[in-house]
């Protein structure tokens, strides 16, 4: 089985009904050559299977390869294997992962809503729990843990002993570590996003401790 076929065969979902014949919202990660025209060719292939692109995020750029995430609507979830094959027809392009979501996320609005939720924390333990939920959701991770020394303060999801990809961020003010794990690899932009979540957490931690 090729890498493209594996991606199509392991489409992840974020819960909710998942009928094959229903319209689908997808996050599709594609590795493609970092050359003029490659992005347009992939977009054209998506359009060929009635895919409606809502947003494109550049996760990795530079050198000879780029990694882009396409947020799109597909008329039928059953078209995912066809979509993956079409993208694979672009010279040098491969599908890294396909994730079905209930709605295409609005990054700016979601970030503001999440910060509002975090500001509601009354204790450091409550903050740790909320941060785990937030970080796991934002990074589409399988799990997120909030660790202080050898003590697990909070966790969201089931921590796997051998997750294929793990990213970690030290929290200086909290003297803790925020860790996330999942199957697709974390790209530079996502690691930077985790560090930003860490800085936000440190600031909120100091506020909660001051008023606790």
Record the SSE blueprint:
Blueprint: H1 3-9, E1 12-13, E2 24-33, H2 38-48, E3 51-60, E4 65-74, H3 80-88, E5 94-101, H4 107-119, H5 124-138, E6 143-148, E7 151-157, E8 165-171, E9 176-182, H6 188-211
How would you sum up this structure, described in words?
The chain is of the alpha+beta class. Helix content is 37%, strand content 32%. The chain has helices at residues 3-9, 38-48, 80-88, 107-119, 124-138, 188-211, and strands spanning 12-13, 24-33, 51-60, 65-74, 94-101, 143-148, 151-157, 165-171, 176-182. The strands form two sheets. The chain has a five-stranded mixed sheet. The chain has a four-stranded antiparallel sheet with strand order 7-6-9-8, with helices on one face. β3 and β4 form a beta hairpin. The longest helix has 24 residues, at 188-211.
Summary of the model, kept short:
The chain has 212 residues and is of the alpha+beta class. Helix content is 37%, strand content 32%. Helix 5 (124-138) runs antiparallel to helix 6.
Task: Looking at this protein, list some descriptive labels.
212 residues, alpha+beta, Alpha-Beta Plaits, Beta-Lactamase, 2 domains, five-stranded mixed β-sheet, four-stranded antiparallel β-sheet, 6 helices, 9 strands, elongated
Uncertain parts: 15-19
Largest sheet: 5 strands, mixed
**CATH architectural group of the largest domain:** 2-Layer Sandwich
Helix content: 25-40%
What would CATH call the homologous superfamily of the largest domain? GAF domain
Strand content: 25-35%
- C-alpha end-to-end distance: 55 Å
H and E order: HEEHEEHEHHEEEEH
- Rg, Cα atoms, Å: 19 Å
Q: Which class of secondary structure composition applies to the elements?
A: alpha+beta
- Number of DSSP-assigned strands: 9
Shape: elongated
Output the CATH topology of the largest domain: Beta-Lactamase
């Amino acid at each position: 089985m090729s890498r493209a076929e594996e991606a199509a065969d392991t489409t992840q979902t974020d819960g909710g009904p998942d009928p094959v014949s229903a319209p689908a919202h997808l996050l599709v990660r594609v590795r493609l050559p970092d050359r003029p025209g490659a992005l347009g060719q992939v977009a054209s292939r998506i359009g060929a299977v009635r895919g409606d692109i809502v947003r494109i995020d550049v996760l990795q750029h530079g050198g000879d390869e780029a990694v882009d995430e396409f947020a799109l609507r597909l008329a039928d979830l059953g078209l995912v294997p066809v979509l993956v094959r079409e993208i694979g027809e672009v010279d040098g392009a491969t599908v890294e992962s396909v994730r079905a979501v209930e709605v295409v996320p609005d990054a700016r609005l979601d970030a503001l809503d999440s910060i509002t939720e975090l500001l509601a924390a009354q204790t450091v333990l409550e903050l740790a729990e909320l941060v785990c939920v937030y970080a796991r959701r934002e990074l589409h991770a399988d799990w997120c843990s909030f660790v202080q020394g050898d003590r697990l303060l909070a966790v969201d999801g089931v921590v796997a002993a051998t997750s294929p990809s793990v990213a970690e961020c030290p929290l200086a003010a909290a003297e803790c570590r925020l860790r996330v794990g999942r199957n697709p690899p974390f790209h530079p932009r996502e690691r930077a996003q985790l560090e930003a979540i860490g800085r936000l957490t440190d600031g909120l931690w100091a506020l909660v401790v001051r008023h606790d």
